[in-house]
Amino acid sequence: MGFLSQFQTCFWTIILFLFMVLNCHVNEAALVLPKNVTVTAVFVFGDSIVDPGNNNNLPTIAKGNFLPYGRDFKDGPTGRFSNGKVPSDLIAEEFGVKGLVPAYLDPKTQLQDLLTGVSFASGAAGYDPLTAKTANVIAMSGQLELFKECIKKIKGAVGEERAATIISKAIYSVYWQ
What are the entry keywords (predicted)? Predict the structure, then answer.
C-alpha cells in the first residue's frame, strides 16, 4: 500500500472517529430562563428569514404566500418564506409565548396578538433603505415606525403601566441575511 493510500485510510478513519464522538456528545439545545423571569412578548424585525406574511398585501414580487412555501404547514402558505415555522416562531414557542408570531400587517392580526408580540419583518428588506424601496417592501426604518404604531395601540388597549411591563419583558429579535 502506497503512502497516499495509507494517508487516505488514516484521514477517513480519523474523520469517522470524530464524527462518532461528536455525534454521541451533542446535546439538544434548549432555551432556559431563570425561574423568576418571564417573557411577555416577542417582537421581530428583519427580512425574509422571519417574515410571516407582512409582504402579502404589498405591491411586491417578494412574497411567500404561494406553494411550495408552506406545503407541509397545517394552513398552507402563510407568507413565511419557508415550508413551516421560521426562527422567531420557534423562539416564541420555546419561551411559551405563542406558537406562531403573526405578521403585524396581516388583516387577521388582532389587538390581542399585539400584546404577545408580532413580526414587522419584510422579505427582501435589506439593511439599506434603497434596497427595500426598490423591492417595494418595508425597510428597517419602516419596521421601526410600525413598531412605534404598535406600541401606541398596546398603550391604548391596556394602559401605560401594563404596556410598560409588556414592552420591558419582551424579547426583541432582529434577523438579517
Answer: Membrane, Transmembrane, Transmembrane helix
